[in-house]
Write a structure and sequence with these properties.
Strand content of chain A: 5-15%
Oligomer: homodimer
Largest interface: A-B, 44 and 45 residues
Strand order of the largest sheet of chain A: 1-2
Order of helices and strands of chain A: HHHEEHH
Radius of gyration of chain A: 17 Å
DNA sequence: CCTCTGTTATATCTATTGTATAACAGAGGG
DNA sequence: CCCTCTGTTATACAATAGATATAACAGAGG
């Protein structure tokens, strides 16, 4: 899977890598059991340091998106800790929705936006694998 | 309005201040025209440095939640740049929903969560002012 | 004039981020 | 058995962000 780094973004490099892989899983461009490139290969291909990729992989493992074999490297393996994920999402939404509520974005508009994003996920899903 | 700092959080102090004020506006504990304490008074009351509060206020101004008079200090004044707010929300949701989708949280559950959070906003709204 | 406001300029310290070089242990292939 | 690849760890270094501290400035008002 292609990872693209935005150097103009104020988001840390290792988080960009992390998030793009999670997006890859959500859109089924990456599936359970798929192997990620080695930290060195990934670092080479996107032109950043090995340790930065290693930090991203370690975070992905900690958050339950990959498991790591000594030989196979990082393998997509999503743990289903639904309760924790639900709490994390709620905490994020609490502040994100507060911002949009201040800006007069209605609950219905948020619902529509959710559906729109899920639509994007499904659309990307078809053109892959 | 009472601001509470969580020193165990990994969120920056100035962001905690910023977010709690935005939550205050969303729940109508703060209303258009209300004056925030001066940066020095706020810093004193929550036990942090003046510059940290100043950074929070500057960010609130930049994101369009307050205006600043030389004499009155920071005053709640929400700009309604709906388009920008919508884009920001979408960008945040794209990655947040990807995470929850990986953890098998359904679109319907997200919709329910949205309503639940809006319920919290409305409930807090009644017991204030 | 004195006081309060946000703002700015320094300086200092710590933590985070990113890069760099190097080495280690385990697993597999020739 | 050796060579190579894997993640992992240990350093070191530079740059940036976060938080504190002291100090001063200009504007507005009593």
């Amino acid at each position: 899977m292609l990872i693209e780094i935005d150097y103009n973004s104020n988001e840390a490099l290792y988080l960009q890598v992390c998030n793009q892989i999670i997006l890859g899983i959500a859109t089924s461009r990456l599936s359970e059991g798929d192997e990620l490139p080695s930290v060195r290969a990934m670092a080479d291909s996107i032109g950043i340091n090995m340790h930065t990729v290693n930090k991203a992989y370690a975070l992905l493992r900690q958050e339950g998106y990959v498991k790591v074999d000594r030989r196979r490297g990082a393998v997509i393996a999503v743990s289903n800790d639904r309760i924790g994920a639900m709490e994390d999402l709620k905490e994020h939404l609490r502040i994100a929705l507060a911002r949009s509520r201040c800006k007069n974005i209605s609950r219905e508009e948020v619902h529509r936006l959710i559906d729109e994003i899920y639509g994007e996920y499904d659309r990307e899903q078809e053109g892959s694998v």
